[in-house]
Design a protein that fits this description.
Layout: E1 12-14, H1 16-25, H2 33-36, E2 37-47, E3 49-52, H3 61-70, E4 75-79, H4 85-97, E5 101-105, H5 109-117, E6 123-126, H6 131-135, E7 140-144, H7 159-162, E8 170-178, H8 183-197, H9 202-208, H10 219-240
Parallel strand pairs: 4-5, 4-6
Antiparallel strand pairs: 1-8, 2-8, 3-6, 3-7
Helix pairs in contact: 1-10
């Protein structure tokens, strides 16, 4: 898509993994999102879930932070792989809370969840596929990673609310066009998406799929969002010294 003809007919969906994170995380990349793509509109946002075991020695974010500071170097957190949004959410949590926690990467969320339930790791930032295990009482949801409480989990505090001010780590999906796409084509697509987002009942349908539909962002607002998201992850990745092949 980054090399596609900007004829107004080519659009693609992007997410933090390939838009905000990849440019800083990978040693080489055959595209540059800020150069090759034009933000068009935000689609949906999905918080990650900060979870632990029901028998863990901490059951809230503040207890987790206190436990980590009282037991430096003892905590471990799982993710679905190095460089994933789950990994970076955990790294940012450790950095912002000043907790020494070791990252344990897995090949996907399922084995990470399995080892969390088995007691081989202490906590994890997982995607919403973990909801069934939360409802079954197999793991405990401590917080969501959106800046404020999520409509998906209204009884659960955000990480920021629960003790780490300023924390936010969202998954999102948005629409992009090749750089140079005519503004009228970009504005047309945004108008179509905005009309769809405002259709009665659509937000509830997304909610049933564990996705939140935020207020519409026009191309300029979405571009500012993407720039801020990219800057945030770039700063974290550089501080970690992370580079993937």
């Amino acid at each position: 898509m980054a090399r596609a003809k900007p004829d107004g007919y080519q659009f693609v969906m992007g997410s933090p993994g390939n838009i905000s994170i990849a440019p800083s995380a990978y040693k080489s990349l055959n595209y540059n999102p800020s150069r090759d793509l034009m933000p068009v509109a935000m689609g949906v946002q999905i918080p990650l879930l900060l979870v632990t075991r029901p028998d863990a020695p901490f059951q809230t974010v503040s207890e987790l932070v206190r436990y980590g500071k009282e037991h430096p170097g003892k905590l471990t957190y799982a993710s679905g792989g190095t460089g994933t949004s789950q990994h970076l959410a955990g790294a940012m949590f450790a950095q912002m809370s000043a907790v020494d926690a070791q990252h344990v990467p897995y090949k996907g969320s399922t084995p990470a969840l399995t080892d969390l339930m088995g007691g081989r790791v202490d906590f994890a930032f997982l995607d919403t596929s973990a909801v069934s295990n939360i409802k079954a009482g197999k793991i405990r949801l401590m917080a969501v990673t959106s800046a404020k409480r999520s409509a998906l989990f209204p009884e659960t505090p955000s990480v920021a609310e629960a003790g780490v001010p300023g924390y936010e780590a969202l998954n999102w999906y948005g629409f992009f066009a090749p750089a140079g796409t005519p503004p009228e084509s970009v504005n047309w697509l945004y108008g179509q998406l905005k009309a769809a987002q405002e259709a009665p009942g659509l937000a509830e349908k997304f909610k049933a799929q564990m996705m939140e539909m935020p207020p519409p962002m026009d191309p300029a607002a979405f571009a500012r969002f993407v720039a801020a998201d990219t800057a945030k992850w770039s700063q974290l990745i550089k501080s970690m010294g992370l580079k993937l092949d």
